[in-house]
């Protein structure tokens, strides 16, 4: 035992490590982020052509969830220094002192290896390779390299969050395709306006710890404009599943309407002056963006379940 | 003799002291690991059966 640990004990503090509960370790997996990952991966599995045995599908989903959680734990390990200085992340297990950084690193590394190997052995190695790349991308490319270096961190790093439906698709088909790339693209284009809306509120925190988020580096006005630009790019991308024939008229109609709502909120935010009104508009867009992505993927899932995906666009209207 | 006494005192200080709360949390963690491992084994068993299907009993003797 180290001298520090001995002196800690003498002073009544907990010895190094061993202080975290099972719940603390679960928190390291970023369960809220994980829930969105699970859902989008499930949609990827469901809409992929061909079938998959439910047990294998469940296994793929479990591996994706654990892999995503593992990368969250590794992110918290690496970012513990800045997490301790931001109000939003202050209560996380490492800055709060409940889990040591080395415990989090070991936990994340073990789960990463297990999730990838299990995916490879029980599902297929293409999905396993994509999962491994996703973990690598989130931890090494986003967390370690881009996050503290460029205001484009979230644009490029957002790819990590966009891979899950592609992995789900690969679990079923054993490969990647244009359709799965479109699912990837939807989340990829959605991430910047979603995250920058939140960053507008937390820019003070990011500035304090030296993370060059867009509002910190380019200012709030430029961020609001970028949000509007990305929103305008996002909406046509969300219509691609219908254009490519793996989503139906219901999807096209509702998604277009939802997209109009997204654009409107982004437009309102772009025209809002800094201050309380901007924060309110940003948080409204942030909340709507979560609902928006959830509904779009829900529509894809619902059409698949009820067999509406094969309907050509306009068929529903003709039937009315 | 005195040297031996000093040695035993030193060990007494170095021995890890676990509080009740720490012991409770360690037990929780151990149980979580046990459940995870049991689930992992069950998963491999079930997937093996699923993949083998009807061939599970079909092997040359």
Layout of secondary structure:
The complex is a heterodimer of chains A (320) and B (61).
Chain A: H1 3-10, H2 22-28, H3 31-47, H4 54-78, H5 80-83, H6 101-122, H7 125-146, H8 153-162, H9 164-173, H10 178-209, H11 214-217, H12 220-238, H13 240-243, H14 249-270, H15 276-305, H16 315-318
Helix pairs in contact in A: 3-4, 3-9, 3-15, 4-6, 4-7, 4-9, 6-7, 7-8, 7-9, 8-10, 9-10, 10-12, 10-15, 12-14, 14-15
Chain B: H1 2-14, H2 20-52
- Shape summary of chain B: elongated
Number of strands of chain A: 0
End-to-end CA span of chain A:
76 Å
Total helical segments of chain B: 2
Order of SSEs of chain B, N→C? HH
Description of the molecule:
- The complex is a heterodimer of chains A (320) and B (61).
- Chain A is an all-alpha fold and 320 residues long.
- Chain A folds into two domains: 20-176, Tetracycline Repressor, domain 2; 177-320, Four Helix Bundle (Hemerythrin (Met), subunit A) (Up-down Bundle), CATH 1.20.120.
- Chain A contains 16 helices and no strands.
- Chain A has helices spanning 3-10, 22-28, 31-47, 54-78, 80-83, 101-122, 125-146, 153-162, 164-173, 178-209, 214-217, 220-238, 240-243, 249-270, 276-305, 315-318.
- In chain A, helix 7 (125-146) runs antiparallel to helix 9 (164-173), helix 10 (178-209) runs antiparallel to helix 12 and helix 12 runs antiparallel to helix 14.
- The longest helix of chain A has 32 residues, at 178-209.
- Chain A is flat.
- Chain B is mostly helical and 61 residues long.
- Chain B has a domain at 19-54.
- Helix content of chain B is 75%, strand content 0%.
- Chain B contains two helices and no strands.
- Chain B has helices at residues 2-14, 20-52.
- The model of chain B has no long low-confidence stretch (mean pLDDT 80).
- At the A-B interface, helix 4 and helix 6 of A face helix 2 of B.
Q: What tags apply to this protein structure?
A:
heterodimer, A: 320 residues, mainly alpha, Tetracycline Repressor, domain 2, Four Helix Bundle (Hemerythrin (Met), subunit A), 2 domains, 75% helix, flat, disordered N terminus, B: mainly alpha, 2 helices, elongated
């Amino acid at each position: 035992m180290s001298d520090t640990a001995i002196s800690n004990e003498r002073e009544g503090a907990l010895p190094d490590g061993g202080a975290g509960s099972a719940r603390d370790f679960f928190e390291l997996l970023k369960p809220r982020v994980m829930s969105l990952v699970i859902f989008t991966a499930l949609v990827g599995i469901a809409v992929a052509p061909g079938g998959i045995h439910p047990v294998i599908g469940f296994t793929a989903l479990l591996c994706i969830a654990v892999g995503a959680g593992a990368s969250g734990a590794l992110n918290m390990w690496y970012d513990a220094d800045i997490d301790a200085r931001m109000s939003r992340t202050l209560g996380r297990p490492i800055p709060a002192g409940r889990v040591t950084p080395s415990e989090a690193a070991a936990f994340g590394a073990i789960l990463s290896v297990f999730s990838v190997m299990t995916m490879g052995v029980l599902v297929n190695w293409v999905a396993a390779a994509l999962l491994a790349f996703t973990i690598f991308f989130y931890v090494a490319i986003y967390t370690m390299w881009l996050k503290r270096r460029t205001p484009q961190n979230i644009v490029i790093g957002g790819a990590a969050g966009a891979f899950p439906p592609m992995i789900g698709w690969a679990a079923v088909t054993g490969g990647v395709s244009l359709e799965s790339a479109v699912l990837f693209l939807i989340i990829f284009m959605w991430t910047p306006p979603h995250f920058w809306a939140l960053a507008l509120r937390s820019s003070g925190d990011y500035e304090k710890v030296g993370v060059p988020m867009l509002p910190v580096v380019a200012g709030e006005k430029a961020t609001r404009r970028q949000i509007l630009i990305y929103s305008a790019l996002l909406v046509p991308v969300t219509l691609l599943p219908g254009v490519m024939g793996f989503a139906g008229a219901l999807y096209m109609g509702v998604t277009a309407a939802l997209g109009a709502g997204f654009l409107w909120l982004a437009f309102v935010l772009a025209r809002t002056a800094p201050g309380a009104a901007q924060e309110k508009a940003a948080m409204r867009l942030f909340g709507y963006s979560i609902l928006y992505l959830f509904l779009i993927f829900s529509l894809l899932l619902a059409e698949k379940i009820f067999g509406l995906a094969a309907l050509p666009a306009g068929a529903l209207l003709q039937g009315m | 003799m005195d040297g031996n006494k000093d040695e035993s005192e030193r060990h007494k200080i170095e021995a890890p002291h676990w509080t009740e709360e720490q012991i409770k949390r360690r037990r929780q963690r151990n149980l979580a690991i046990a459940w995870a491992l049991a689930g992992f084994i069950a998963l491999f068993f079930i997937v093996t059966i699923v993949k083998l299907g009807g061939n599970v009993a079909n092997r040359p003797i």
